[in-house]
Amino acid sequence: MTPERDEVSGELTTGHEWNGIKELNTPIPKVFRIWLWGSIAICVVYWLLYPAWPFVSDYTKGVLGYSSRLDVQEKVADGRAFRAESFAPFETTDVTTLSEDPDLQARYEPAAQVLYRDNCSVCHGRDLQGQESFPNLTDGHWLWSSTPEEIEYTLQVGINTTHQDTRYAEMPAFGRDEMLAAAEISDVTDYVLQISGQPHDATAAARGEDLFAENCSGCHNDGGVGGLESGAPSLTDEAWIYGKGPDAILETLKNGRAGVMPSWSTRLSPAEIKLLTLYVLWAGEGDAKQ
Amino acid sequence: MDTKHAKLERHSMAFATAILFVASLGGLFEIAPLFTIENTVEKVDGIRPYTPLELAGFDIYVREGCYACHSQMIRTLKSDVDRYGPYSLAAESMYDHPHQWGSKRTGPDLARIGGKYSDDWHVAHLSAPRAVVEGSVMPGYAFLSDVSLDTARLPSSLIALSRTGVPYTDIQIENAQLDASYQGDQDADYEDDLIERYGPNVQVRDFDGNPDRLTEMDALVAYLQMLGTLVDFDTLNHEEIAR
């Protein structure tokens, strides 16, 4: 059972034998061995250059002083500097002045669209038309005014958020919190249907008018035309965030609403917020109605 | 033939032991030191254990297998940081048992989802994903709104976690059920108690839009809305936590 030299190939055998069958012990090709030892040599170089070997309470830091975290910080900062250059007007100019520049749209709309789709489209829709619970941004109806600074401010602080300067607007739960009786809520519903030009019960609406003046006009103003200072929507137009019709209105009166627009000042840069403000203005019908 | 090799090969127990030794080298050098190296987990301000309601949400997240499609690990890559925000810190998942880093992104990373969208959106999206996001392949979880949250098991969850090293205090364990119920109810006038026990970063409100009932949806949305919100990255010293 000792290795012997095979006559045909000239290689040694392993020394095993099974019923007269012997196994060649051909060494692996030299190129693989060179490759293996070469890889190990490269490892040694890496060990010296980069963080590598652990000890009990610390590890070797490597002579390059490399840190993946500082590295990514640097790359992100480079990216920001590059964007600041490409979006130079947005870095320095205020949003109102920017909104008066007719040349910006052609150049910056594609970038704004990417930003919008990354952050805003899941609520307001890819076409900015909104969906139930989330307002349409293109229809010219505004809750907090249509001026560029006010839109920018909404983007920064949000509505009903945890941001310290947040805009705040809450429709009280008149039913659940027992501020109005069920019959009164039904009357107010009819009044709201009346002023928004929908089918309604005229006698109930007449009763609801006084209730509306007492309870609702503080925010929604006389006749329900809405108020930009309180973020209360107009109830006389065709724009309905939570749906039109008696069921949706009744539900709002009963259980209240307090829609949230997130605050973006910690997530997006001031320039990005300006860009999104303009994107909304470009897409919309402007200030057709409030 | 090399006689040492031949000897090893012919002694099965010795060979098995040798294999075990070689195979354990990786763990010995790559895993074991992480438990003793002092800066494995950064010391940053703001990290706290989950409130009972958030913990219930975490458990639902695990139960429903959200980790199969969503990671919670923003890597130190420019593309990741650009898209999702500051890279994840070890400290941010130090109280996760098990951690939810994940390894696959069929959906987006969720490590900084907290505060990005409103509660209403989360509820609408969890209930019917394609109603709000065109082309989404996420399954719907509408049933979460119909299932009352079982808070009875929370004290034992907190005890179990405290045995693994999560620093829950006796007061937190004692009040776990109450804390969970009232974090989902802004009218309960209980916010100060929660802030006293868990710090200023606790969000108290009705998360699922149904103030009459504490549901699994409340818990999951409460959990999602706190993800990635504990550390203030504007004041973080990146040199100090350089790795």
Structure description:
The complex is a heterodimer of chains A (290) and B (243). Chain A folds into three domains: 66 residues, no CATH class; 121 residues, Orthogonal Bundle (Cytochrome Bc1 Complex, Chain D, domain 2), CATH 1.10.760; 74 residues, Cytochrome c-like domain (Cytochrome Bc1 Complex, Chain D, domain 2). Chain A has 290 residues and is mostly helical. Chain A has a two-stranded antiparallel sheet with strand order 1-2. In chain A, helix 7 crosses helix 12 and helix 8 crosses helix 11. Chain A starts with 12 loop residues before the first strand and ends in a 7-residue tail after the last helix. Chain A contains twelve helices and two strands; from the N terminus they run E-E-H-H-H-H-H-H-H-H-H-H-H-H. Chain B starts with a helix and ends in a 17-residue tail after the last helix. Chain B has 243 residues and is an all-alpha fold. At the A-B interface, helix 2 of A face helix 4 and helix 5 of B. Chain A: It comes from Parasedimentitalea maritima. Chain A: C-type cytochrome. Part of the cbb3-type cytochrome c oxidase complex. Chain A: Component of the cbb3-type cytochrome c oxidase.
Brief description of this entry?
The complex is a heterodimer of chains A (290) and B (243). With 290 residues, chain A is mainly α.
